[in-house]
């Protein structure tokens, strides 16, 4: 499954590259990544639905372009509701 900002084949290759660079197995690299994402999830409150304000005040380790292309602001055509309906 792929989209404009997501490609499962690229993610798989990124995991393999990360594992090779760190001297880990793919399974160890996945476990490491999941542990880091779990900590990030807990750091922003551990909720699936987070207020927009929480997204605009980023945690220190969170990349600028994580989840939304405008750093937490919805854009028309990307799941946002525009005024035209």
Give an account of the 3D structure:
- This protein has 85 residues and is mainly α.
- It has a domain at 8-56.
- Helix content is 45%, strand content 5%.
- It is built from 3 helices and 2 strands, in the order ββααα.
- The chain has helices spanning 8-22, 26-43, 52-56, and strands at 2-3, 6-7.
- It has a two-stranded antiparallel ribbon.
- Strand 1 and strand 2 (6-7) form a beta hairpin.
- Helix 1 (8-22) crosses helix 2 (26-43).
- It is flat and about 35 Å long.
- 1% of the residues are buried.
- Residues 65-85 have low confidence and may be disordered.
Q: What is the average per-residue confidence, as pLDDT, rounded to a whole number? A: 74
Rg, Cα atoms, Å:
16 Å
Tell me the overall shape. flat
Q: Compute the separation of the termini in Å.
A: 28 Å
Order of helices and strands: EEHHH
- The main sheet orders its strands as 1-2
Structural class: mainly alpha
As a percent range, the share of helical residues equals 40-55%
Residue stretches low in confidence (pLDDT < 50, at least 5 long) are: 65-85
Give the number of DSSP strands: 2
| Largest beta-sheet characterization | 2 strands, antiparallel
| Helical run tally | 3
Percent of residues in beta strands: under 5%
